[in-house]
């Protein structure tokens, strides 16, 4: 081997070592930076609580106005408190947290000199700022919708540090007699007065931070009017579309488009989880890449992705992208090419239709524009239906009564003597059609909803649809075997024993009357723990929070 070959091999080995070291540094630097920033903030607060060194204080007060010295002390307390909470953002690799921490470190380095000439702190703080600058590549996340949260243990640690510093201050100045004038005492030796003012600064800063984070976490993430116009045009331009794709127009979702604009994922935000409703919509050849890009986009926004209610055809792509799967129920599809009311198996359906006609029920499919008379009639039925139930309108995986939303679809209507007693809006797909919002008056005949769906199926068959999508039966088809996943076993137990609370079995039995073909539906998340978190998030989004979760069952 020539000298050149040896040199080239050595250079290649050095490059590999450098890459490995860089990867380790990139992996550890966010956590190291978070600990250093948190520790620096705690160091500054503890220093501010303690009595200042008399010689240094005399030097500073002899050069600077005493008001500026006390103001620096107050501002340093605010900046140090903010640094305690920024540590969580650094641990999450957030670019904004890194920039803010650098600014605060530099600012505190100056304030440490102004408030008491604590040059040791300035050196440490400038060193932390230098570390944040060197490792800037590791902080790539820019938080997106729903990423605001309190940070769990980091917030607890910050509040605990503030409580300890307050206790330390009161212990140090225990012998100082308290009076109302102490707050307004501005003297070089008035360390107790500076401590009290710093304590106020700390409490105000922590309170504002917590309040802003709570408000940000509670702020609903919804579609803008421009987003709805764009996705509406996108859906109408698709050569092939499934009925559930129209959930994009409910107004509670965000949209992730492919680079070509030919595919979109609709998702809603629950905490730090981006929950996609169904599979990607659009070009089939972009579906695999869309799953990867969606996961990468969620990570850059300091969130994590999940896919809710996806069918078997998407499972290979989800598995390749590193998702863990959990069956959550089954979907019922009625093949209309073979559907009829003839034969012994259809006896009950024929009886339902005969009974509906005897009761004077008349079926029609209509449309309306917002403000028309039909809208007010439908709203009356919907409000009567809602009065018998607690909670709020559902969302995410179901439509809700909104005139602009419902006016986009054909409405299956059941009347008696000209009065609407039941209705359902129909999602028209390329080959399939299915009901979304289904409402009936409390005094409607018991078989009204069954008659409405039956007539809608016959209407769909006449209009050359090949499939009638009856929607999902939650928790249906889950296995309760010794080696089944624990979530499947829990779900199967709930399905068997919680029928009085929700009516899981009754819902499946109702749909089984139409002899559908059942297809499994899955939830996908990055790991097993997040599968359960995503399922809880999807339930919360659908049911409108805790109030909605406690709503009594809706039985057809």
Give an overview of the whole structure:
- This protein is α+β, with helices and mostly antiparallel strands and 556 residues long.
- It is 52% helix and 15% strand.
- It contains 18 helices and twelve strands.
- Strands 1, 2, 3, 4, 5, 6, 7, 8, 9, 10, 11 and 12 form a twelve-stranded mixed beta sheet that branches.
- Mean pLDDT is 83; it is low at 546-556.
Notable features of this structure?
556 residues, alpha+beta, twelve-stranded mixed sheet, 18 helices, 12 strands, 15% strand, disordered C terminus
Instruction: Supply the number of helical segments.
Output: 18
Q: What structural category arises from helix and sheet content?
A: alpha+beta
Mean pLDDT: 83
The major sheet is characterized as: 12 strands, mixed
List the helices and strands in order: HHHHHHHHEEEEHEHEHEHHEEEHEHHEHH
Oligomeric form: single chain
Percent helix, as a range, is 40-55%
Low-confidence parts, pLDDT < 50 over ≥5 residues?
546-556
Apparent shape: elongated
What amount of the residues lies in strands? 15-25%
Q: Please provide the count of β strands.
A: 12
């Amino acid at each position: 081997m020539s000298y050149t070959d040896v040199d080239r091999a050595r250079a290649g080995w050095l490059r590999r070592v450098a890459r490995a070291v860089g990867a380790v540094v990139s992996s550890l630097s966010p956590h190291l930076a978070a600990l250093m920033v948190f520790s620096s903030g705690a160091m500054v607060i503890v220093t501010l609580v303690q009595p200042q060194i008399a010689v240094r204080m005399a030097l500073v007060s002899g050069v600077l106005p005493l008001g500026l010295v006390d103001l620096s002390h107050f501002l340093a307390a605010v900046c140090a408190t903010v640094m305690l909470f920024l540590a969580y953002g650094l641990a999450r690799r957030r670019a904004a947290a890194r920039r803010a921490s650098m600014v605060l470190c530099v600012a505190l380095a100056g304030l440490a000199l102004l408030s008491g000439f604590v040059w040791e702190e300035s050196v440490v703080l400038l060193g932390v700022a230098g570390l944040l600058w060197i490792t800037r590549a590791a902080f790539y996340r820019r938080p997106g919708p729903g990423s605001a949260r309190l940070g769990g243990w980091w917030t607890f640690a910050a509040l605990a540090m503030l409580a300890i510093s307050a206790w330390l201050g009161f212990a140090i100045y225990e012998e100082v007699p308290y009076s109302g004038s102490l707050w307004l005492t501005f003297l070089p030796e008035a360390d107790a007065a500076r401590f009290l003012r710093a304590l106020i600064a700390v409490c105000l800063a922590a309170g504002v931070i917590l309040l802003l984070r709570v408000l940000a976490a509670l702020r609903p993430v919804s579609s803008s009017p421009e987003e709805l116009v764009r996705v509406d045009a996108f859906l109408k331009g698709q050569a092939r579309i499934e009925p559930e794709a129209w959930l994009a127009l409910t107004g509670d979702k965000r949209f992730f488009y492919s680079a070509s604009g030919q595919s979109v994922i609709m998702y809603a935000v629950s905490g730090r989880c981006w929950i996609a409703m169904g599979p990607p919509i659009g070009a089939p050849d972009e579906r695999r890449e869309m799953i990867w890009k969606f996961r990468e986009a969620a990570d850059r926004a300091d969130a994590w992705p999940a896919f809710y209610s996806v069918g078997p055809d998407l499972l290979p792509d989800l598995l390749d992208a590193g998702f863990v799967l959990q069956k959550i129920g089954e979907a019922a599809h009625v093949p209309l090419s073979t559907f009829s009311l003839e034969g012994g198996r259809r006896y009950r359906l024929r009886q339902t239709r005969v009974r509906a006609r005897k009761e004077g029920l008349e079926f029609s499919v209509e449309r309306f524009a917002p403000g028309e008379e039909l809208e007010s009639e439908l709203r009356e039925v919907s409000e009567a239906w809602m009065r018998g139930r607690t909670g709020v309108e559902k969302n995410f995986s179901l439509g809700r009564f909104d005139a602009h939303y419902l006016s986009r679809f054909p409405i299956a209507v059941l009347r008696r003597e000209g009065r609407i007693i039941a209705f359902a809006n129909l999602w028209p797909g390329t080959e399939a059609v299915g009901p979304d919002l289904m409402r009936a008056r409390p005094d409607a005949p018991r078989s009204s909803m069954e008659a409405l769906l039956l007539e809608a199926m016959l209407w769909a068959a006449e209009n050359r649809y090949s499939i009638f999508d009856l929607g999902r039966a939650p928790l249906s088809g889950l296995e309760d075997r010794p080696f089944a996943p624990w979530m499947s076993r829990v779900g199967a137990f709930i399905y068997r024993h919680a029928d009085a609370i929700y009516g899981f079995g009754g819902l499946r039995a109702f749909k089984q009357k139409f002899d559908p073909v059942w297809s499994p539906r899955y939830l996908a998340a990055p790991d097993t723990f997040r599968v359960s978190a995503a399922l809880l998030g999807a339930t919360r989004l659908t049911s409108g929070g805790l109030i909605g979760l406690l709503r009594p069952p809706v039985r057809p």
